[in-house]
UniProtKB/TrEMBL annotation:
<feature type="binding site">
    <location>
        <position position="444"/>
    </location>
    <ligand>
        <name>Zn(2+) 1</name>
    </ligand>
</feature>
<dbReference type="InterPro" id="IPR040498">
    <property type="entry name" value="PriA_CRR"/>
</dbReference>
<keyword id="KW-0238">DNA-binding</keyword>
<feature type="binding site">
    <location>
        <position position="470"/>
    </location>
    <ligand>
        <name>Zn(2+) 2</name>
    </ligand>
</feature>
<keyword id="KW-0378">Hydrolase</keyword>
<feature type="binding site">
    <location>
        <position position="473"/>
    </location>
    <ligand>
        <name>Zn(2+) 2</name>
    </ligand>
</feature>
<keyword id="KW-0639">Primosome</keyword>
<keyword id="KW-0479">Metal-binding</keyword>
<dbReference type="Pfam" id="PF04851">
    <property type="entry name" value="ResIII"/>
</dbReference>
<feature type="binding site">
    <location>
        <position position="456"/>
    </location>
    <ligand>
        <name>Zn(2+) 2</name>
    </ligand>
</feature>
<protein>
    <recommendedName>
        <fullName>Replication restart protein PriA</fullName>
        <ecNumber>5.6.2.4</ecNumber>
    </recommendedName>
</protein>
<comment type="similarity">
    <text>Belongs to the helicase family. PriA subfamily.</text>
</comment>
<feature type="binding site">
    <location>
        <position position="447"/>
    </location>
    <ligand>
        <name>Zn(2+) 1</name>
    </ligand>
</feature>
<dbReference type="Pfam" id="PF18319">
    <property type="entry name" value="Zn_ribbon_PriA"/>
</dbReference>
<dbReference type="InterPro" id="IPR005259">
    <property type="entry name" value="PriA"/>
</dbReference>
<dbReference type="InterPro" id="IPR027417">
    <property type="entry name" value="P-loop_NTPase"/>
</dbReference>
<keyword id="KW-0067">ATP-binding</keyword>
Length: 734
């Protein structure tokens, strides 16, 4: 018996003999120890396939030493998925294996804790009022959650509501609650039972759910695009489909971008499906992740909710994958293999004969294109689900006109007027600034020198604590007192990021209570939830923030959303910049008027005629899509054509440049008879990150297969040619 083994850190597959004593224990996906190289040092590797036919003389094969005792075994399917990812994204087998197996070692399973209320609802309400009087914030949140649900999952509650063990102890002593601890192998039907009766779906929702269910029952394994405006009830449709799949004894993965994975969202699923649900996210420790994946592998749970990486949940009977907010950039991995969750989900769904549902209020151009061509089934929800909830009125303000009429403030007259009105009426306001610290860079007013990160080709950003920070690598320095170049004391931060906006807002509206949410104020664990919760509780009138505040949160008292400079994201060096802008503006507009009160949105912009902005103002996805598709077609960008980007990077600037020079000449020559166009090379944006220089070459073609071929041969050249010795190669086809 022979095995093919992928040895860690070596991107090749090696064959080994299985000694008789290990025969029953070696399966595909198991981690093993094998003698490797001259000294026969033991290396770890994964079994990627088993066979009876050696590719060499059998007596030359070394024998496998041992099955790694602490290793997680993966399904054969995950190995296949890794192979596919390696091919599709041009990664090494080890990188691909690491991705499909998020946790490598077994960690002793921990016990599961649950917070259980010991008092009646009336008593809890009394305690809540008392806590409100005393302004005990964590307790208020806890009592509210307990009123909704008598039992709460401990880990999630502690993490998301900012409740600590120390704050629970006195409540335990007073007999208000107890913490129940169960062994890992507990009875799965115990715990918190499903509490919420499902809502009655409206006609649109019913139609959408029925179409998917009929297709599932017919044994099809289709992909569907659920295009529904914000608040149209997509989540309810997901839950209806999940329930159908569970009835068939199959399992479900729900992807939600990390940023939208709030306590409220997760509890909606818990309330409906009880402890058949688990959640995985980046804040879990390795042990906790292992626990959750092990539960999935054992079949203790049927629904896994999480970001991108939840795709690799080892369910044996996967029947449905849902990708909520499918347009989100976070579904694209930044690490090799640079996979897109949508593509990997489609692959996993195919392997399992499972259904894939993509949901969004602003579908990606790629997905809508496929839906239009009939590749995906298209389901539409055109109205908000709650009766009295309407779409907001949108006002577009031309900032050039404001300036021409002498208004130099960050607030247009329209926005200021509406804000004053809202503050008087005690309604809430959100101010959205797309892109954190887009300014805030520091420069010398005398010589013009800008303070840059020594490791990255980007400006440092000023923070109020007097620290300059690099948002790419985290490098920090104190703000210098004088210009390091000319010695002038006239050195100061420029422009207006979210911090600056906060300052100016406080100055302009001294009567208002202001909260800010961006990467800086949410760096601490749990801070994200705390800010949202405080705003929800009405502890502030205005919430200022970046992207973070526009994603999926439901604030019934917000009736005004201001977008400070809508066109900033239009100038990102990326062919998707219009799409991103449209998405952000639409999502931001979706925040106003979620409750019973009507909402207004003010979009301030220097480019009021840009189609991404006019379409967003009219909340008209179709209009945006048609324009954008024309542009993509004209420019030969995806999905109208395929795009291959190849990045060569190196710590040595000349090495990256020389290698790229070789590569582009070689590709132009090698593929001169193919229908491709080569663009560039250009410098990465930013050019230098973490002391590594990045050069990028783009290759466009109508044919996807040609691009895959180019990538493969380019990679081969990179591996075999001396010129590429100190250079890292990365390539992605989209
Ligand atoms: P989406 O996921 O599309 O943003 P949600 O599923 O979160 O929409 O629904 C928005 C709001 O409308 C939620 O508060 C939800 O409980 C409510 N809702 C959804 N469907 C219905 C329905 N059929 N009847 C009543 N309320 C509904
Ligand atoms: Zn200077
Ligand atoms: Zn840096």
């Amino acid at each position: 018996m022979i095995i093919d083994l992928s040895v860690t850190n070596v991107d090749r597959v090696f064959q080994y003999r299985i000694p008789p004593e290990l025969l029953g224990r070696v399966r595909v996906g198991v981690r093993v120890l094998a003698p490797f190289g001259r000294g026969d040092t033991l290396r770890k590797g994964y079994v990627v396939s088993l066979s009876h036919t050696p590719s060499f003389a059998p007596e030359k094969l070394k024998a496998l030493r041992e099955v790694d005792p602490g290793a997680v075994s993966v399904q054969e399917q995950m190995i296949c998925l890794a192979w596919w990812m390696k091919e599709r994204y041009g990664a090494t087998m080890n990188q691909a294996l690491k991705t499909v197996m998020p946790v490598k070692s077994a960690v002793a399973p921990k016990e599961e804790k649950t917070i259980v209320a010991l008092r009646s609802r009336e008593e809890l309400s009394g305690l809540l009022r008392e806590a409100e009087k005393k302004k005990y914030k964590a307790r208020i949140r806890l009592y509210k959650a307990l009123l909704e649900n008598g039992e709460l999952p401990y880990r999630l509650t502690a993490q998301k509501l900012g409740v600590t063990a120390a704050s629970l102890r006195p409540l335990e002593e007073k007999g208000i609650l107890k913490i129940r601890t169960e062994e890992k192998s507990r009875d799965p039907v115990k715990g918190y039972a499903p509490a919420a009766a499902p809502v009655v779906l409206n006609e649109d929702q019913k139609r959408a759910a029925a179409a998917v269910k009929a297709s599932m029952d017919a044994g099809e394994a289709r992909t569907w695009l659920l295009y529904g405006i914000t608040g149209s009830g997509k989540t309810e449709v997901y839950m209806e489909l999940i329930s159908h799949v569970l009835d068939q004894g199959r399992q479900v993965i729900v992807l939600i971008p990390e940023i939208s994975l709030t306590y409220q969202t997760v509890m909606r699923f818990y309330r409906r499906f009880g402890n058949r649900v688990s959640i995985i996210n980046s804040r879990l420790s390795a042990g906790e992740r292992y626990d959750q994946l092990a539960r999935a592998a054992r079949g203790d749970i049927d629904i896994m909710i999480g970001p991108r990486s939840a795709l690799f949940t080892p369910f044996e009977r996967l029947g449905l994958i849902i990708i909520d907010e499918e347009h989100e950039g976070a579904y694209q991995s930044e690490l090799s293999p640079r996979y897109h969750a949508r593509e990997v989900a489609a692959m996993r769904a195919t392997m399992n004969q499972a259904t894939l549902v993509l949901g969004s209020a602003t579908p990606s151009v790629e997905s809508f294109y496929k839906a239009e061509r009939g590749e995906y089934g298209l389901l539409t929800l055109g109205r908000r689900a709650k009766k009295d909830s309407r779409l907001a009125r949108v006002h577009v303000v031309d900032l050039r006109e404001e300036l021409a009429e002498g208004n130099r403030s960050m607030f247009s007259r329209k926005l200021k007027e509406l804000m004053e009105e809202r503050l008087l009426r005690k309604e809430q306001i959100m101010l959205f600034m797309n892109r954190r610290g887009y300014a805030g860079f520091v420069s010398c007013r005398s010589c013009g020198e800008a303070m840059k990160c020594p490791h990255c080709d980007v400006s440092l950003t000023y923070h109020r604590d007097g620290i300059l920070r690099c948002h790419y690598c985290g490098h920090e320095v104190r703000m210098p007192r004088v210009c390091p170049v000319c010695g002038s004391p006239y050195i100061a931060p420029f422009g207006s990021g979210t911090q600056k906006l906060e300052e100016i807002t406080k100055r302009t509206f001294p009567q208002a209570r202001v909260l800010r949410m961006d990467a800086d104020t949410t760096a601490k664990k749990g801070a994200h939830e705390e800010i949202l919760e405080a705003f929800m509780e009405g502890e502030a009138d205005i919430l200022i923030g970046t992207q973070m505040i526009v994603k999926g949160h439901d604030f019934p008292r917000v009736t005004l959303v201001g977008v400070m400079a809508a066109d900033l994201s239009l100038y990102a060096p990326d062919f998707r910049s219009s799409e991103r802008t449209f998405e952000l503006l639409t999502q931001a507009s979706g925040r106003a008027g979620r409750g019973e009160l009507p909402g207004d949105v003010v979009i301030q912009t220097y480019a009021p005629d840009h189609f991404a902005i006019t379409a967003a103002a009219e909340q008209d996805y179709g209009q945006f899509y048609r324009q954008e598709f024309l542009y993509r077609k004209m420019m030969g960008y995806p999905p109208a054509a395929g795009l291959l980007s190849i990045q060569l990077s190196s710590r040595k600037e000349e090495a990256a440049a020389a290698a790229m020079e070789d590569l582009q000449k070689w590709i132009r020559r090698e593929f001169c008879f193919e229908e491709i166009s080569v663009i560039g090379p250009v410098n990465g944006s930013p050019y230098k990150v973490n002391d590594i220089y990045r050069k990028i070459l783009y290759i466009k073609s109508e044919s996807y297969d040609i691009l895959l071929k180019v990538r493969k041969s380019a990679q081969k050249r990179e591996e075999e040619n001396e010129r590429y010795k100190n250079v890292n190669f990365q390539a992605a086809v989209q």
